[in-house]
Specification:
The complex is a heterodimer. Chain A has five helices and seven strands. In chain A, helix 3 packs across helix 4. Helix content of chain A is 36%, strand content 16%. The termini of chain A are far apart. By secondary structure, chain B is α/β, with parallel strands linked by helices. Chain B is built from nine helices and six strands. Chain B has a six-stranded parallel β-sheet, with helices on both faces. The chains are: A alpha/beta, B alpha/beta. Chains A and B meet through helix 1 of A and helix 6, helix 7 and helix 9 of B.
Chain lengths: 165, 197
């Protein structure tokens, strides 16, 4: 398994919870996290006892900034590194929890035929997840009106604890 | 996802309340909360005398009646709204939350991890609100009051909780655990199903 993404606690803690849940179902599962260099996931994931690799990726500033000039180069470099990580680790599934790193990682994983799953816990999806929606096999959402954004056939609801029976 | 961390001071300013007084939040919903509204309206005096703060979302149909009842008390610790636009603030300042038990509300309560008293709407399809509640009550993660008992039990139970930091802590710990654990497991199972395919 590869789990990618991060940026804020809102992405990282669910990611660690998913990893723990996978381990509790099957303790033999190998899990590698992929985060963004310099972001808080790099230490939080290690603290939780998992391995993590970093991509040199940042967000695109939505206003004009000089730093945006480097953005395309970072994306290409990140895609290449993501590709190398996938070729080396050979995951059976790639999971994206939102945040910068999940973009290049899930893009490359799905390109290489690795089934992908993304998690969107907000009621309005982030740009990364919107771009990935058509490439992945499953999308898990927290609200039941998300078919506005994602194909209903792929979506399932994990964060709603109780379903009407 | 609703975020309440660090918002208590802003919340107090927003509602015109204080941060250091126990606060009860009552969320009636837009229409289906008659029993909750009547229970609150009938016990405003007791709530005022208990020295706690109240934020009361009563819904549009009951708003005029609720405003009159509150005005008669002239208490600056009781705030009534037909609709609360900043639920994050309301959750942030609340010490106890009193609400119906719809799925979205319940999952929100799990995420914010605050002690809750739930009054399932008995007319909900197949009584699913009661089922939502029972899953929580079994884990001592919330308190259930039946709709027909609201008038007599709701406010006394709320005041008891506001007075017991220990009871609040227990409920709060237990309801917090429900939020992530179950959804993480569901996601993990979906992940594994992708391997088999």
């Amino acid at each position: 398994m590869i789990i990618s993404g991060g940026g804020t606690g809102g992405h990282i803690f669910p990611a660690i919870a998913i990893a723990n849940a996978l381990r509790s179902i099957d303790p033999e599962i190998e899990i590698l996290f992929v985060g963004a260099e310099g972001r808080m996931e790099m230490e939080k994931v290690l603290a939780a006892g998992y391995k993590i690799e970093g991509l040199n990726i940042t967000g695109f500033q939505r206003s004009f900034k000089l730093s945006n000039l480097a953005f395309p180069f970072r994306v290409i470099a990140s895609l290449m590194k993501a590709g190398r990580i996938i070729s080396g680790f050979k995951p059976q599934v790639a999971i994206g929890v939102g945040g910068y790193a999940s973009g290049p990682l899930l893009y490359m994983a799905t390109r290489k035929g690795v089934p992908g799953l993304i998690q969107e816990q907000n009621s309005y999806p982030g740009i990364t997840n919107k771009l990935l929606a058509s490439r992945v096999k499953k999308i898990c959402v927290a609200y039941d009106n998300m078919d506005k954004f994602f194909p209903a056939s792929k979506s399932f609801l994990p964060a709603i604890l109780f379903v009407k029976r | 996802m609703i975020k309440i961390e660090g918002k208590k001071t802003d919340a107090a300013a927003f509602f015109g309340l204080k941060t250091d007084i126990p606060t009860l939040l009552v969320v009636g919903g837009s229409q289906g909360a008659r029993s909750i509204n009547h229970a609150i309206a009938g016990s405003l005096d007791a709530i005022h005398k208990a020295g706690v703060q109240l934020i009361w979302q009563c819904g549009k149909p009951f708003h005029e009646q609720a405003q009159k009842a509150v005005a008669a008390l002239s208490s600056d610790r009781i705030k009534v709204y037909d609709f609360i636009t900043r639920m994050d603030y309301a959750y942030a300042i609340a010490d106890v939350i009193l609400s119906r038990a719809g799925a979205s509300t319940v999952s929100e309560l799990c995420i914010i991890g605050k002690p809750a008293i739930l009054v399932p709407l008995p007319t909900a399809a197949e009584d699913h609100q009661t089922k939502n509640c029972q899953s929580l009550v079994e884990k001592n993660a919330a308190i259930l009051i039946k709709d027909q008992d609201a008038m007599t039990s709701l406010v006394p139970e709320a005041l008891r909780l506001l007075n017991s930091a220990e009871a609040r802590q227990t409920l709060s710990n237990n309801i917090s655990k429900l939020a992530l654990r179950d959804s993480a497991k569901v996601i993990a199972e979906q992940v594994l199903s992708l391997i088999k395919n």
